[in-house]
Amino acid sequence: VAGENFDQSPLRRTFKSKVLAHYPQNIEWNPFDQDAVNMLCMPKGLSFKTQADNRDPQLHSFIITREDGSRTYGFVLTFYEEVTSKQICTAMQTLYQMHNAEQYSSVCASSSCSMDSLASSIDEGDATSLAKLQRYNSYDISRDTLYVSKCICLITPLPFMQACKKFLIQLYKAVTSQQPPPLPLESYIHNILYEVPLPPPGRSLKFYGVYEPIICQRPGPSELPLSDYPLREVFELLGLENLVQLFTCVLLEMQILLYSQ
User: Fold this and answer.
1) Where are the domains of the chain?
2) UDENN domain: from which residue to which, for each copy (predicted)?
3) Residue 194 per-residue DSSP state
């Protein structure tokens, strides 16, 4: 378990994640920082869900700034896949049984209930009864399907957010589709890593993803730096008044801290 969150029900806890694979294995000018990438890909850790939870894929980005000021940009698609390990499913059910027993004992301790009142509370269907706790706060291995979070991440020297987002979504669709993609998955990964060059300054580049072509454009030397993030999302997230205040702070060269979940 990642962090001290044992009061949470097991499906609301976060667990320690790890990097399963990365390609290429090593680049001299861009060494792979496994701990940093792991933390930035899954800042809250590994999480589990069931078929009753929302499991829509989510995309986020991050920046790794090195001591010399150079930057590397990461784009992450987080999705959920079914847990096929019977051992993990059994462990999750055991965690729920322990959690519900602890919750129930704490409820009884706070109300100083005796064995007689315990029996009557179960008979009467009290909200604090073990039966109801198990019904509304449980994982049943015979009834529920367990899913675990997983990430695919692209690390790039420039923030081509839209191009990376489209490629990751297409790759995810290929992984989860009933129909296999036209070529093996490895060929698309090899293509993006070794065969798609950075576009020259002031030029655009068109390359092929899994299903559709993808275009990325790089500003010229006399243009503003690349900013591939949609401005509309900033307005939607912050609102007009907050954005004007933020812009004012930028012009006044004030220190700005953005904090969110």
Assistant:
1) 1-105+133-157, 230-260
2) 1-261
3) I
